[in-house]
Design brief:
single chain, 296 residues, alpha/beta, Arc Repressor Mutant, subunit A, D-Maltodextrin-Binding Protein, domain 2, 3 domains, five-stranded mixed beta sheet, 22% strand, elongated
């Protein structure tokens, strides 16, 4: 098989369309289409079902994709080992984490990291939906739950504390609750349930102090912690927020400071095949040396 055609096939399969693969490879859509047609002809097999909404791998395409993925993994590992032999981390490092953690903790460190490691191109991917590291959607993940995949190396980093917060404006208007049951008379803000929250028990507040009475109905739900924090800051109500989201400029008040929600355990994870990757190790050590438990 023509390796160049396999490379193009792999890009198309990951992108789900000729157009997006062409953008990634800097090739025209017609050139991509010709390469795929040539590969299908040489294999005497159809690799894609073509639909209006995109391309879907056939059974034969799935077989080839798995093989190509293994080859790419081996090539990546070999490249990492070669770079390690030269003693300098280099190349693209794709790091994924949640939107809130990425914006408030990771992004502010980027300038310092790139200054220390100018040969690394950092690709920071923020998403509250976990990416598949085994399929190399990212190289490294900083996750708010422990990864369960057996092929991932994971390291516990910190436990983030979570408390109740409200604005001074809200408390002046509605009063300050003294017990969890008092929250029945307040506007509760929660993470939206249209998508799975990035942290288990994130919406513990709806049931706190309501044993046997059923959950409260939130006044507002938002499926983004940054937007939820903003709503609290403008006086919309009381919400449970990780402490690392709280900055002095927001002027938020910790309500019932003795009440603490379930802690959030934060993990650093990456595929087994990148165990010896210099850039993965460099970012891990940098993160640990620039962020401490006190920040959470």
């Amino acid at each position: 098989m023509d390796w160049d055609k396999i490379r193009i096939f792999y890009a198309v399969a990951k992108a789900g369309s000729f157009t997006h693969a062409g953008e990634a490879l800097h090739l025209s859509q017609s050139a991509i289409s010709r390469q795929i047609s040539g590969l299908e002809e040489s294999l005497k097999a159809s690799l894609f079902h073509r639909h209006a909404r995109g391309l879907i791998l056939t059974e034969q395409g799935e077989i080839l994709y798995r093989a190509a993925h293994e080859v790419y993994g081996a090539v990546t590992q070999a490249q990492e080992e070669l770079n390690a032999a030269k003693g300098k981390p280099t190349g693209v490092l794709k790091v994924t984490t949640t939107i809130a953690l990425g914006e408030t903790v990771v992004a502010p460190l980027v300038d310092k990291f790139l200054t220390l490691y100018p040969s690394i191109h950092l690709d920071l991917i923020l998403s509250d939906t976990p990416l598949d590291l085994s399929m190399r959607e990212a190289d490294v993940a900083i996750r708010l739950t422990e990864p369960r995949q057996p092929d991932l190396i994971r390291r516990f980093l910190f436990s983030a504390h979570v408390h109740l917060y409200a604005s001074e404006k809200y408390l002046q208007t509605h009063g300050t609750p003294q017990t969890l049951r008092d929250l029945d008379d307040h506007q509760i803000l929660c993470y939206g349930n249209q998508t799975r929250p990035p942290v288990p028990n994130l919406n513990w507040l709806v049931g706190a102090g309501r044993e046997g009475l059923g959950p409260r109905t939130p006044a507002l739900t938002i499926n983004n912690l940054i937007a939820l924090r903003r709503a609290v800051a403008t006086g919309a109500g009381i919400a449970s927020l990780p402490d690392y989201l709280i900055t002095d400029d927001l002027q938020l008040v910790r309500v019932m400071p003795e009440v603490e929600a379930p802690k959030i355990d934060i993990f650093y994870a990456y595929p087994e095949e990148l165990r010896n990757s210099q850039k993965v190790i460099a970012f891990r050590d940098f993160f640990l040396s620039n962020v401490s438990q006190e920040d959470f």
